[in-house]
């Protein structure tokens, strides 16, 4: 029996783990605007980034190559859970009463339960090649911190994480997960850094933000010659690593359909959506399909639908390069909603660029509507989605109820089994 024969008889489709990452930017007529040096405001040079990032990642950040071979050690680790399943969500279709065919690309099968591991493993690898001993990073709900802690354990690198206080206090389990993998976790803002102390002096009761946590992690990496910094989203090299999601999904979907009509993903920093959507946009550019791409973001942090498209810092202290992106401003502190991974003031320059080109559209979702869709999905399909992912599900559900016979693909960026207190709050009617 061939793979496609087998696939036709089951709802879960698998293909090979990709051998190359895909870089959409190389195939666009207009390039992504370059990152600028925070001091000189000139395009940032590789040597400017060297204190913070591994050389292999700096090269990827400015790459104009469409394909990058995935190093074998990285591909081997990815093969522990990849290819991730593309699931036809028939019971969810029935629950919605739609004739649309809904496919879900499920990243919750990774060790830490989200797509973040795809880039964490690659980043740890390139740092190990450069002899780096320690990686510092920020995390919101803890998905990225746990992914990097896992990846650090694979390559013998220490991982130190600053977690947004709102999530550190309300979601202790991912902290336990990070420590289980050997990582160290601090609530942010902390007394451990100059940036953290300054933020606490200004507002001692702050719930923190990803922008603050980035400042702390960058400061520590910049001062330690054996340490580098890792970012879980936003940057071009992260988007590149996440392309495995879409490369698999395009192939998996081709076994059943003539392509997607609409692809939905949640967007915090933009990496899981870009990872899923950019290979579909490759198909569009080459005239093989014509999908719409929808970025679902929270009403509480609407960088695409309400933000400005301009240069801004990635962090609160202004230590990072200036990025051309949709931003709510580096000082923006969103309400402490449960989708911690969507509480970032900016958006990936690569995804922002495709929004400007009219290839991607944004939609803002209320937290209660997101959880309602998440609960409906859990009751019909069994998988409890991450609070972040429920935004994509809600956007797709709204669409499916109003359309017929279309092929929809939803990026299910992670599972929510460590976010059940948030579901409990929703179910008891206590959600703000
Ligand atoms: C981090 C995270 C997100 C948001 O980050 P993106 O870079 O926008 O993908 C979404 N879903 C989950 C499960 C996450 O952990």
UniProtKB/TrEMBL annotation:
Q: Subunit arrangement?
A: Tetramer of two alpha and two beta chains.
Taxonomically, the superkingdom here is Bacteria
Which NCBIfam families did the record assign? PRK12391.1, trpB_rel
Q: Which family does it belong to?
A: Belongs to the TrpB family.
Tryptophan synthase beta chain-like PALP domain ranges (all copies): 81-414
Could you cite one Gene Ontology molecular function of this protein?
tryptophan synthase activity
Show the InterPro entries listed in the entry: Trp_synth_b-like, Trp_synth_b_CS, Trp_synth_beta/beta-like, TrpB-like_PALP, TrpB-like_PALP_sf
Enzyme class, top EC level, equals: lyase
**Entry keywords, A to Z:** Amino-acid biosynthesis, Aromatic amino acid biosynthesis, Lyase, Pyridoxal phosphate, Tryptophan biosynthesis
Question: What does this protein's UniProt record list under function?
Answer: The beta subunit is responsible for the synthesis of L-tryptophan from indole and L-serine.
User: Which PROSITE patterns does the UniProt entry name for this protein?
Assistant: TRP_SYNTHASE_BETA
Under Enzyme Commission nomenclature, its number is 4.2.1.20
Identify the metabolic or biological route this protein is part of.
Answer: Amino-acid biosynthesis; L-tryptophan biosynthesis; L-tryptophan from chorismate: step 5/5
| Catalytic activity from the UniProt record | (1S,2R)-1-C-(indol-3-yl)glycerol 3-phosphate + L-serine = D-glyceraldehyde 3-phosphate + L-tryptophan + H2O
- What cofactor does this protein call for? pyridoxal 5'-phosphate
> Cellular component per GO?
cytoplasm
Q: What is this protein called?
A: tryptophan synthase
């Amino acid at each position: 029996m061939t793979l496609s024969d087998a696939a036709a008889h089951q709802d879960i489709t698998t293909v090979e783990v990709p051998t190359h990452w895909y870089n959409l930017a190389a195939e666009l007529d207009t390039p992504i605007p370059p990152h600028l040096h925070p001091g000189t405001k000139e395009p940032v040079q590789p040597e400017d980034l060297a204190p913070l990032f591994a050389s292999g990642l700096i090269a990827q950040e400015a790459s104009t190559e469409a394909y990058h071979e995935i190093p074998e050690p990285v591909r081997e680790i990815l093969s522990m859970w990849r290819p991730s399943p593309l699931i036809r969500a028939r019971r969810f279709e029935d629950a919605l009463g739609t004739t649309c065919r809904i496919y879900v690309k499920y990243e919750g099968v990774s060790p830490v339960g989200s797509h973040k591991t795809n880039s964490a493993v690659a980043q740890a690898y390139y740092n190990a090649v450069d002899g780096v001993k320690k990686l510092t990073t920020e995390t919101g709900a803890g998905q990225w911190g746990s992914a990097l802690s896992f990846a650090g354990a694979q390559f013998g690198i220490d991982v130190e994480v600053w977690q947004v206080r709102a999530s550190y206090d309300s979601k202790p389990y991912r902290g336990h997960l990070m420590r289980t993998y050997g990582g160290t976790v601090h609530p942010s803002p902390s007394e451990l850094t100059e940036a953290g102390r300054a933020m606490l002096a200004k507002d001692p009761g702050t719930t923190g933000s990803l922008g603050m946590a980035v400042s702390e992690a960058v400061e520590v990496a910049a001062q330690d010659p054996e340490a580098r910094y890792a970012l879980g989203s936003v940057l071009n090299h992260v988007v590149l690593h996440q392309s495995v999601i879409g490369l698999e999904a395009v192939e998996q979907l081709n076994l059943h359909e003539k392509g997607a009509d609409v692809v939905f993903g949640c967007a915090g920093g933009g990496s899981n959506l870009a990872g899923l959507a950019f290979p579909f946009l490759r198909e569009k550019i080459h005239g093989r399909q014509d999908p719409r791409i929808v970025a679902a973001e929270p009403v509480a942090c609407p960088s695409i639908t309400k933000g400005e498209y301009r240069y801004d810092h990635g962090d609160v202290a202004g230590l990072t390069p200036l990025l051309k992106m949709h931003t709510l401003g580096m000082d923006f502190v969103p309400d402490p909603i449960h989708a911690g991974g969507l509480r970032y003031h900016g958006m990936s320059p690569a995804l922002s660029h495709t929004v400007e080109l009219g290839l991607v559209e944004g939609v803002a979702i209320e937290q209660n509507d997101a959880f309602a869709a998440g609960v409906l999905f859990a009751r019909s399909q069994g998988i409890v989605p991450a609070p972040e992912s429920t935004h994509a599900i809600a956007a797709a559900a709204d669409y499916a109820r109003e359309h017929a016979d279309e092929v929809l693909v939803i990026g299910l960026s992670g599972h929510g089994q460590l976010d059940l207190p948030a579901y409990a709050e929703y179910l008891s009617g206590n959600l703000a």
